[in-house]
Design brief:
Keywords: DNA-binding, Phosphoprotein, Transcription, Transcription regulation
Order of helices and strands: EHEHEHEHEHEHHHHHH
Helix content: 40-55%
Organism: Saccharothrix espanaensis (strain ATCC 51144 / DSM 44229 / JCM 9112 / NBRC 15066 / NRRL 15764)
GO molecular function: DNA binding
Number of helices: 11
Strand order of the largest sheet: 2-1-3-4-5-6
Radius of gyration: 18 Å
CATH class of the largest domain: Alpha Beta
CATH superfamily of the largest domain: Response regulator
Largest sheet: 6 strands, parallel
CATH topology of the largest domain: Rossmann fold
Strand content: 5-15%
GO biological process, one term: phosphorelay signal transduction system
CATH architecture of the largest domain: 3-Layer(aba) Sandwich
Number of strands: 6
Number of domains: 2
Distance between the termini: 46 Å
Shape: globular
Protein name: Transcriptional regulator, LuxR family
């Protein structure tokens, strides 16, 4: 199946680079592009691409609001939006995910990671770069301190997850990638992926960021 991609980026050189990268893949087709947020929304609604690659800072309408209009609460058929940006340590990341983005990568990610990101989002999975997860932890850990150390949800999580799944959840909350978790727990990366999938399913979580937030809120891990 060919993945139809809409590239939304205000810098022409960057946009051209994305077009070149995606068009070179045998399973991808760039069906359109947009240089501002308003145009991004219009083209996404017109073309119905499989994945919208969206920059956060766009003229006329920023990428977050464009994403909210395409994938936010109340949208009947939400688009799959992969945010790609240089900004990773401020509230833009959090707001983009709240707006309904399916994934988030940094612009300095290598082409292979960008390509993998598009495929992951197209498959209906969520993707958040480990570096972004770490940034979220650093930026929001203080507000995620549990107000009650006997939080009842903590016991629910402990009873719902197997011991190994709890261990993986704690490592996710520490911002580790699957490969890093595998090395630390002496298991394979594929096994980690299986555990992560089970954790998200059992706890009804959308992505790793929600897992991080939950782990902090119920006091499984504590901000330093």
């Amino acid at each position: 199946m060919t993945i139809r991609v809409l590239v939304c980026e205000d810098q022409e050189l960057v946009r051209a680079g994305y077009n070149t990268i995606f068009s070179a893949q045998p399973d991808m087709e760039v069906v359109g592009e947009a240089a501002d947020g308003r145009r991004a929304v219009e083209e996404a609604l017109r073309l119905r691409p499989d994945v919208v690659v969206m920059d956060i800072r766009m003229p006329i309408l920023d990428g977050i609001e464009a994403t909210r209009r395409l994938a936010g609460p109340g949208v009947g058929t939400p688009a799959k939006v992969l945010m790609v940006t240089t900004f990773n340590v401020d509230e833009y990341v959090y707001e983009a995910l709240k707006a309904g983005a399916s994934g988030f990568l940094l612009k300095d990610a290598p082409p292979a990671e960008l390509i993998k990101g598009v495929r992951t989002v197209a498959a209906g999975e969520s993707l958040v770069a480990p570096a972004v997860t770490r940034a979220l932890i650093g930026h929001f850990a203080e507000r995620l301190r549990p107000t009650d150390t006997t939080h009842p949800a903590r016991e629910h999580v402990r009873q719902t997850l197997a011991r190994r799944e709890l261990e993986v959840l704690v490592q996710i909350a520490a911002g580790l990638s699957n490969a890093e978790i595998a090395e630390k727990l002496c298991i394979t990366t594929e096994t980690v992926k299986t555990y992560v999938s089970r954790i998200l399913t059992k706890l009804d979580l959308r992505d790793r960021v929600q897992a991080v937030v939950l782990a902090y809120r119920v006091g499984l891990v504590v901000a330093e």
